[in-house]
Amino acid sequence: MTDRDLAVRVAEGDADAFDELMRRHEDRVFAICLRMLGDRQAALDATQDTWLTVFRKADRFSGASAFTTWLHRVTVNTCYDHLRKRKRRRTDPLPEGFDPDDPGAEGGFASVELRPDVESALLRLPDDFRAAVVLVDLQDLSLHDAAEALGVPTGTVKSRLFRGRRLLAKELRNLREGSEHQKDEHA
Amino acid sequence: MHRHDEDRIAALAEGHLPVEEAAAFEAEVASCPTCTEILSDFRLAIDALSGLPEPRLTDLERAGLHRQVRRHITLTKRPRWVRLVPAFAAAAALVAVFGVASMLQNQGGETFQPIGARLEQADTTATAAAPTTTAAASMGAPAAPEMATDQAMPAITQDELPEFVATLRAQEKSVDRNDVSCLSLVEGRSLIAAESVLLGGRPVEILVIDEEALVVDPTSCDVLISVRP
Ligand SMILES: [Zn+2]
């Protein structure tokens, strides 16, 4: 059965169809959420919210585009919601020693993932750039599909992707130089 | 006149140019500092990203996710109100304890309508006396409110309420504002958490806001209880 068939059944309230759709795509959703949000607990929350939205709004999936395109859209929007919420929270007084610019400050990712420098750099990108980079360079979406998922023109995605890559490269160089510098100091 | 062709540089960095074209273009890029810098940035970024491991849910996370999602989704065919009738007595006891007069303002059907009742009524002519709406029908409706059931909604007692609120507050579980029935009560304040629960058998919505938490009737949006630490 295709994703589309399953989605139609989910809209009719078919729980088994929903389970199957989730099994097929939950890792993909989690991957996007983790790359967008940077820590596993937040990514799990966003993954859960994404699937609840899929269940509730399955009837709004028109079938005009691929199910995965719609799923990506729901996922990215959920991540944006979580990011907005996080920013709102950070306008509250911060505990001492908390560096709001440190994307790892919320904890949880550095200890779990490899290559923390790439992840830190990714998290330092503006959200819109990061979304384009995650969808195209990590999830291998075409510019066209990424544009549909983000709800912006293809040219906009391309421009965000290119600027995102360049910023990422600069962040990586900065991070690597920083850690070289630290090593020198300790030597 | 040389143009810094980002599209073509991207294609080169992504390895999408045919071999011969790639070699010729790379030489052209090398003659322009700007293009060289763009290519170097693109390559560094693409290389770094391709080295990232594909994140996967651990078995534990996967099981937790399935459990949580299932908890929030009703898979039952029975309309919820059927189980809510016995809750009447418990809710009346609540009123006695807290003296919330407004709770009984709409005494009768409306006060004790389940969260999804408005929707069910809009969809069908189902009344409390003759339920015809199946869970499946209401699930398909647009913007369906939280589709909770007994399994889905935590059932708590009054005694447990303060601790439950504290847990909600600590979790900072993300709130989908679309799922909050009484959003107007929160206006201008930061909503920290929201959860639908059966409180003494009665379906209520708990809104954790700033210093206080409101226990509200999800249908009338009457505030039944205000919980302060
Ligand atoms: Zn150039």
Structure, described:
The complex is a heterodimer of chains A (about 190) and B (about 230). Chain A has about 190 residues and is mainly alpha-helical. Chain A has 8 helices and no strands. Chain A has helices spanning about 5-10, 15-35, 40-55, 65-90, 115-125, 125-140, 145-150, 155-185. Chain B has about 230 residues and is an alpha+beta fold. Chain B has 3 domains: about 5-50, no CATH class; about 80-140, no CATH class; about 155-225, no CATH class. Helices cover about 40% and strands about 15% of the residues of chain B. Chain B contains 8 helices and 5 strands. In chain B, a hairpin with a 6-residue loop joins strand 4 and strand 5 (about 225). In chain B, helix 1 (about 5-15) packs across helix 3 (about 35-50). Mean pLDDT of chain B is about 70; it is low at about 75-90 and about 90-150. Chains A and B meet through helix 2, helix 3, helix 4, helix 5 and helix 6 of A and helix 1, helix 3, helix 4 and helix 7 of B.
- The share of residues in helices of chain A is over 70%
What's the alpha carbon Rg of chain B, rounded to whole Å?
28 Å
Gap between N and C termini of chain B, in Å?
71 Å
Spatial ordering of strands, largest sheet of chain B: 1-2-3-4-5
Largest sheet of chain B: 5 strands, mixed
Can you say what the CATH homologous superfamily of the largest domain in chain A is? RNA polymerase sigma factor, region 2, helix turn helix motif
The H/E string of chain A reads HHHHHHHH
Question: Could you tell me which ligands this complex binds, including any ions or cofactors?
Answer: zinc ion
Domain count of chain A, please report it: 2
What structural class should be given to the helix and strand makeup of chain A?
Answer: mainly alpha
- Which two chains share the most extensive interface? A-B, 55 and 47 residues
Largest sheet of chain A: none
Query: Could you report the average pLDDT of chain A, rounded to the nearest whole number?
Result: 85
Number of strands of chain B: 5
Residue runs with pLDDT of under 50 for 5 or more positions of chain B: 75-89, 92-151
Which spans of chain A of ≥5 residues are poorly predicted at pLDDT below 50?
A: 94-114
Strand % of chain A is: under 5%
Helix content of chain B: 25-40%
- CATH architecture title of the largest domain in chain A: Orthogonal Bundle
